[in-house]
Amino acid sequence: ERELFFRSIGVDQINVSISSTDALQAKKLMGTEAYNVERVMEFCKYIIDKTSITLTINPVYLSGINDEAMGDIIGFAKSIGCGFIGIQNYMRHERGKKAANELSWKDFKGKLKSLEAKHGITLVHDTTLSDTKEMPVPMKRGDVVKARIMCKGRVGKEKIAVAYDRCVLLHTERDGKVNVKIKKTLHNIFVGEVL
């Protein structure tokens, strides 16, 4: 039933970010007590066991913080039959957490090569990007739409709402159904204001 849902909306691959398999460290790295890495890992196993959807596990490598966790994540991925692990290099972002020092790409690639040798798995991937057709953009700046707030965002009063099958980032304390004025839109990413 879940696979039919995923397929009906065009999903044939799911990327999951697990940056630690340790429950306490995972909560800390995700910045919320609500994050349940055991449940995420169960979901990964479900995708492998019960669907034909491709699963990719994409941990973020934070030098000096979750170095040891990389081996556990690789072991988990191998144990469930996930054939693709795409470890990401932590890069600072203006709105992101300042969680660790950035590694140079040369040093990061060296860490991946070391993990490859130790665990017998390919981690340095040469990926080719291709253009795809952009999804239709159902809202434009200035539109007023009805939206349903679905969950908290990453920081402060951020909330994520859904309108026209798209996520809309809001800054509000409200919950439930709201009227939203679209303030920004770029590549099907929407920011709105609750009216």
Report on the structure:
- This protein is an alpha/beta fold and 195 residues long.
- It contains five helices and ten strands; from the N terminus they run αβααββαββαβββββ.
- It has helices at residues 2-8, 23-30, 37-50, 67-80, 105-119; strands spanning 13-16, 54-57, 60-61, 84-85, 88-89, 144-152, 158-163, 166-171, 176-186, 189-194.
- A five-stranded mixed beta barrel has the order 6-7-8-10-9.
- The protein is globular and about 55 Å long.
- The chain starts with a helix and ends with a strand.
- The mean pLDDT is 91.
Discrete helix count: 5
Q: Which spans of ≥5 residues are poorly predicted at pLDDT below 50?
A: none
Hey, roughly how much beta strand do the residues contain? 25-35%
The strand line-up of the biggest sheet is 6-7-8-10-9
Q: Please outline the major beta sheet.
A: 5 strands, mixed, barrel
Overall pLDDT: 91
Report the structural category.
Answer: alpha/beta
Query: Ends: how far apart?
Result: 37 Å
Shape, principal axes of CA atoms: globular
Q: What share of residues is helical? A: 25-40%
Number of strands: 10
How are helices and strands ordered from N to C? HEHHEEHEEHEEEEE
> Gyration radius, to the nearest Å?
19 Å
